[in-house]
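hey m, so remember when u said the C-alpha cells were messed up on ur end? i reran from scratch. heres the input so u can diff it against urs
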Amino acid sequence: MRKAHAAATLDAMNETPTPAFVPQIRLYQNWLRDTRGLTFEHYDDLWRWSITELDAFWQSIWDYFDLQSPTPHTAVLEKNVMPGAKWFPGAQANYAQQVFRHVGPAHAAGFAAIISRNEKGQQHELSWPELRRQVASLALHLQEAGVRPGDRVAAYLPNIPETMVAFLATVSIGAVWSVCAPDMGTNAVLDRFRQIDPVVLIACDGVTYGGRDFDRLGVVAEMRAALPTLRHVILHRNLGHAGDDKSSDLIADYYPWALGIARNDAQVAAFEPVWLPFDHPLWIVYSSGTTGLPKPIVHGHGGTVIVALALKIIHNDVGCSYHPNNWGERYHWYSSTGWVMWNAQTSGLLNGTTCVIFDGNPGGSRDKPDWTTLWRFGAELGVTFFGAGAAFFANCLKAGVDLSNVGDLSKVRALGTTGSPLSPEAQQWGTRQFAAIAKTEAQQDIWWCNISGGTDFAGAFIGGNRELPQVAGEMQCRLMGCAVEAWNDAGEPVLGEVGELVCAQPIPSMPLYFVGDTNHARLLASYFEMYPPGHGRKPGGGDLGPEAGGVWRHGDWLRIGNPATGSTGCVIFGRSDATINRHGLRMGTSELYSAVEALPEVLDSMVVDLEYLGRESYMPLFVVLREGQALDETMQARINDAIKVSLSPRFLPNEIFQVAEIPRTLSGKKQELPIKKLLLGHPLEKVLNREAMANPGCLDWYVAFAQAHQGRHSGQNGL
C-alpha cells in the first residue's frame, strides 16, 4: 500500500516533458549578461566581482528572485562594518510571505509542499493550499493567545510537517522561533530555552527513533515548570495516543495541536503574513554548547531569505518544482531539528520546492542496523537532491551498502554533504555506486554538493558549482557574496596553504546579535577579536580604518587550491583550535582520519594533540575497531604504517587506544576540542555538556583515561 501511494505521488513528475537541464548558476549568469551586461570567463572572476561589488551583487540577487517589499530600500549595504552591518534599510520582509508566493502556481502544477515519512512507514503529503491554511489557522490562534511581534515561541518537535507549519505560523506574525529536538536531554533544552524567555511552548508527546517509542510528556511537564515566562502550551500527539489522558495529568491547561490547525473560515482565507523590517528577528539557533551555555544566535528575516535563495538555488542547484528546468524537483536533506540543516531543509519552500523529509534513525535500529533505510526512502519518493551529513555516507561505505539493492534511484541527480569533512574514500564510494546503477548521463558521474558553513550563518560560505570540476574530498568553490579567505599567521591571504578561515566582508545572514549579550561582548569574543579592527576589511583586499570592525574568524583550518594537483577547490582540515602541530608542522585532524579510517578494520577514530609550552606534545589516538578485531601489535603497526605512508612519520601518535565509541555532538561531529581540554585537566562540566551529545554514555571511559593521564604526566607537564 505504501509503495503504491509513493508511486502515485510520482505521477506529476512525469506528466510534463523536461527540457534540456541548465544548471542554476548558468541561468543566473545568463540573466546577469542579459540584464546587467556582465559576463565572466571563469567562476573566480564572478566570485571576485560578488565580494568586491557587494552592493551590485546583492541587488542582483534581490532582482533575480524578484523579492517583494511594500516599501523600497534606500541602500543595499548602508553600513559596511562587522559586526553591525546594515542591509537593505527601508525594506520589509517576511519569510512566510516568500513561501506563500508559491501556493498557487505550485499547486496548479500538481506538486506537494511537503512529503514526509517516519520509521513506522507512515507517510503524509501536505499540499501547498493545506500548508497555507494550517499556517494561517495556527497563526491566528497564536495571536488570540496574546503572541505579539518580537515574542519568542519555543518548539520541542521532531522533523515532521507539523514543525514546519509551527515555524511558518510563528514567524508569519513577527514572533521569533526557536526549536530543540526531542532527542535532546531536559537540561540541554532548558539551557537553551531559559536564555530566551519564551511565551509559548509547542511540544509533542514523544518520538520514535531506532525502532522504539520515547515518551516525552514528563520532559514537557518539566519544561513547563522551569520556564516561568510561558503563558501557553500547545501539544501535538506525535505518537498517536489520542485516547491517553496522561498529558492532561502531567501538563495543565495544554491546548491540542489539532484544534490549533483546524480553522477554515473567512479569517483564515484572508490571512496574510505581516510585513516586518528587513532585519526583524526570525529565529534563534544555538551553538553546539560544548563549553558553557550554548550561544543563542539571532538571524533576521530578510538576510536569511536572500542568502538561502542564493545558496539553495544557485549554488546547491535546487530549483523550483514547477519550473520547466527543474520540473518535479524533490529536495531532501536528512536532519534533526536540533541541527541547522533542518532550517536549510525548510528553506526549500522559499523557492517553491517540494521538501521530502524523514523522521527517524537513518541507520535502522541498534538491534537491526540498516544503512539502506534512507536510500530506500529516497528511491520510493523520487528524491532528486539527496543530502545528509558526511558521517552518513561514511557509515554507508563502512557497512558495504549496495545501492543496486535499494530501489529506483534514477531521479537522483545530486548528493549533498556537510557537518564534517567528507573523506575522498566516501565520495569515491558514492560515485562508483551511482555509476554502476546509472540510468541518466548525470548519474554516470554524480554531482556532489559538499558544503561548509554553520549555525552561525544559517547557511554556507563554501560549497558547490555544478559547472566546475569535482575532486573527491573537496568543496568546489567559495560561494558568491562570501569573502572567504585562508590567512597565515601574519594575517595575509594565502592560496595552496592551510590557514585560518576568515570572512573579510559581511554576509546578510550573519547574526544580528546573541540573546542577552550586553554590548555584543560575547559576539565579539566569539568571532572578531583575533585580528586588529580594519585589517583586511577593504572589499577586494587591503585595510580600512578601525571603524570598519574586524574580520569574522570562523575557527577552521582552510586550504584554497592545491598546487600539487592544480585543483582550485577548498578543503576544511578541522577546527583550528584542535589542530595537530608536530615537530613544527601543522596538520588538520581530517587528514589523519582519512589515513586511519581507510583501513577496513577501523570503524572510527579521534586524535588530540596535547601541546605544552616548552615541552614535547603528547598525541593519543583513539580507534573503534570492527567486531572481532583487537588492538594487538600487528594492528598498531598497520595503523602506524597507514599514517607513515599517507602523511609522515612526524604524525605518528604517542599511543593508540581501542575504545567503544568516539564522542560526537548531536550533529555527528567528533568532540576533539572538549576531549583535548579534558585531558589537559579541565573539569568535565566545564568542557562538555552530556545532553548535547549523541552518545554521552561513552564519556565515563574518557574521564577515567584523563584522570590516569594526569596522574602519569602531571609532574613533567606542570599540570
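this time it looks ok to me. Confidence is low (pLDDT under 50) at residues 1-18, 715-719. if urs says something different then somethings off w ur setup not the seq
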